[in-house]
User: What shape does this take?
Amino acid sequence: MTAIVTQQLAKHYPEVRALDGVSIALEEHRIHGLLGRNGAGKTTLMQLLTGQVFATSGSMQVLGASPVENAEVLAQTCFIQESQKYPDTFRAIDVLRIAAGAYPHWDQAFADQLVDEFRLPVKRMIKKLSRGQLSAIGIVIGLASRAPITFFDEPYLGLDAVARRMFYDRLLADFSEHPRTVVLSTHHIDEVANLLEHVVILDQGRVLLDADTDELHDAAIAVSGRAADVDAFLTGREVLDRTVLGTLATATFATRPGDERAARDAGLDVTPVSLQALFVHLTTASAAAAAATASVSATDVANH
Assistant: This one.
């Protein structure tokens, strides 16, 4: 079953197109990665899907219905936002008690376990908590809510590497026992790569890539060797990145069937490309193309 569907979804503001024609379909009971540079439109998309802002155009369905002013759908979703704000007069325990009453699938025993593991001082006032402790509140709510659709938007600001790893481990373990649809937006791509089953990359409000992670393992490879040999091999191929050091060169390119074997036959060293490296290559190439288009457009305006 498809949990989330959008068709040509757009959100425009006076000076920016935050989303511009986004069409995606996210299957239920999977962990989806929503990736993109700052300002790519990730948070806007999640806000639209949770009914917090209204679309300019296009359509969307969450659990088979529009989320806009739909209490039944919204009760089945949990959105943990980056830099979530809570009333200063609240204590952490007050926030968790409200969450317990808001989510039908809330697991209090699991919440208590997470509070202990993240060493969250639940009786301390919100205004006295560190950035990492505030993030821990969101993580506890996001996991213990067991909402059929859970959005995590950069959920671990201020958490150290150990705490982030604990979050990943708890998410994966609980997801295995209690499957639901998880959408995870993050800049720590290499840290979560093994969790993700499907990836959507947004860039400048548009979908740059939409694929299962199994497909991405073979989407690109890196080759290295003598610069002349590398350049000869790259002829006719889509090059994502190329660097030269003396007489040696390394290049990343989009693969076609048989490319890996052909590269080895050409005497080149072949290495896989990580999800984060692929993300960097794709978004950098997209930015360069956009800049080139803008430059051409500006020249055309000047000439007329």
About this structure: The two ends are 53 Å apart (CA to CA). The chain is about 40% helix and 30% strand.
